[in-house]
């Protein structure tokens, strides 16, 4: 099959139904931009999250009633809780020192004794790096006799976690819509091209054109449409995120492979859309 | 070369053709004559295997309707030339490109295309109009372009479905001249027409069809 023929026929198809062709490219571009946006958001959140992971710490305050042996036994128990990597004891004096270091000596000049409780700083395994995991560990620590309170500064982190999984779920749902929607507009466009070329196609059949010869230009056309739609989406997202970066430096990154995947996804949708139309209308 | 044996084709509404037995030998000129609705077009469709018979078989050269696969039909068509009453030219390209279309579709080289198209246009007497658009031509000239497009690949069988149906008698006669000339050079022709008058004036075997059956 001649490349020249394929190019001519594909261009011809575009000429015969260019309005719907432009419309379907733009629709695919819009869908893929939306999808790409959410994917980039969730990719950025997980990137941000991975930077926070190293500081997965929890602080457990120890009751004043416990003596040194009790504390040592408690530390042993905490070490055995799954997910706890390291337990570091911070005595009342250590806490006072840290406090002085941060706020000065005023409080201790007023008070007779040290009001700060001793505590353990616990380092958690990355495996427990999700809401349920953290809460489970916190609960387990809290029910140990001798532990007054457990504090963890993961509120922001948990919030991020929630946004990330929301963006993730939404992207999957959106992927479904994008797939169905893109297939619909592209196959509809190819249907119009087929209708507009009915005369040529029936003559092709009369003079002995093979099915592949008749179909290939239509496949190329659909694939190109999807690919151009994906390309426009990739470009739009690239510039949007560049703009965000220029405004607030360093908040977002644009993983190049996501943009590449958008273009490939567009091409795949285009090919599939034209295959559907060919199957149904040719 | 062409053989139809006990062929039946029935459309959903019960119309069609049946008990068709027909043989056409190499080099013959056969008229298929019958009133409108008799089944002429249906019989031709069976020959270019647009419709496969539900009974009997059609054999053309090495192709048999009983055994042919869908993907082989294009290769059968490349050995046939088909002309219709309504010309079916492409209005968006000139005479040369209309004729060249057949060869492009089957992947002929460009140099070869040029040689053969000019040859076919000479055969139908339209060399001087190669760069005209179809709408600049008369009806008779347009049908000659369609014939050139049908013979450019040197088919052994030319099927013509009422090729003069849209033309006045004088123009029709010029088309008949072209067809006779092509036949003299060895191409077998099967031409369907409802015009009994015209058939009488030309050499060739006459096969009559009525109500979907051949009259012997
Ligand atoms: N696609 C079709 N569907 C249903 N009936 C058809 C179809 N084509 C032709 N017929 C019927 O079959 C009969 C033969 O038609 P046709 O072969 O076109 O006749 P002719 O070419 O001799 O005028 C007619 O009665 C016609 O109405
Ligand atoms: Mg007819």
Fold and architecture overview:
The complex is a heterodimer of chains A (about 280) and B (about 220). Helices cover about 70% and strands about 10% of the residues of chain A. By secondary structure, chain A is of the alpha+beta class. Chain A has two domains: about 1-50 and about 160-280, no CATH class; about 55-155, Alpha-Beta Plaits (2-Layer Sandwich). The longest helix of chain A has about 40 residues, at about 155-195. The relative contact order of chain A is 0.17. The mean pLDDT of chain A is about 85. Chain B has a domain at about 90-155. Helix content of chain B is about 35%, strand content about 25%. Chain B has seven helices and ten strands. Chain B has helices at about 40-45, 75, 95-105, 110-125, 140-150, 170-185, 195-200; strands spanning about 1-10, 15-25, 30-35, 55-60, 65, 80-85, 155-160, 190-195, 205-210, 215. Chain B is globular, with a radius of gyration of 17 Å. The mean pLDDT of chain B is about 95. At the A-B interface, helix 8 of A face helix 2 and helix 3 of B. The site of adenosine-5'-diphosphate has 12 residues of chain B, from helix 1.
Short précis:
The complex is a heterodimer of chains A (282) and B (216). Chain A has 10 helices and 4 strands.
